[in-house]
Amino acid sequence: MYMEGSYNYYIVALSMVIAILASYSALSITAKISYSSGKVRYFWLAAGALVMGNGVWSMHFVGMLAFHLHSTVKYDIWLTLLSMAASVIASFIAFYITMPKQINRYHIAVGGFIMGTGIVAMHYTGMEAMVMPLELVYDRSLWALSAIIALMASYAALFCLYVSAIKLRQAG
Hints:
single chain, 172 residues, two-stranded antiparallel ribbon, 5 helices, elongated
């Protein structure tokens, strides 16, 4: 059975605002890693991963709520929490890889790959968490395109973190 849905564009806009604020906050927090050492450094790392991971997850979940189907949709709590955990853990690993004072493009590429993979896992686990009387079917080429976009966006975000860390070091 094929069913079309519609979007509430105000909620879509809210999702975009959440993404922008979460990214800015997470990158601001992780920039503090460069100036920290010891346990404080790991505190900022964990805080940045929580903010980024939960921000990405919240943006995604709010975006899902913006989509309206003419059917009842509920969410499996455990898959929803697993979806959130994937985003936070991937953010932590990516930030950890890009945390050393001497990072290079290789670190950024690996970190971007891990963060992008976590975002893909978060998205499709979140989609699987939808409990409804319909079956989701994915177009393989669109699935691949979404994965490529997630990987590229993750790399770009970590590259921006790298550039901002360099500028902060030069200014300080």
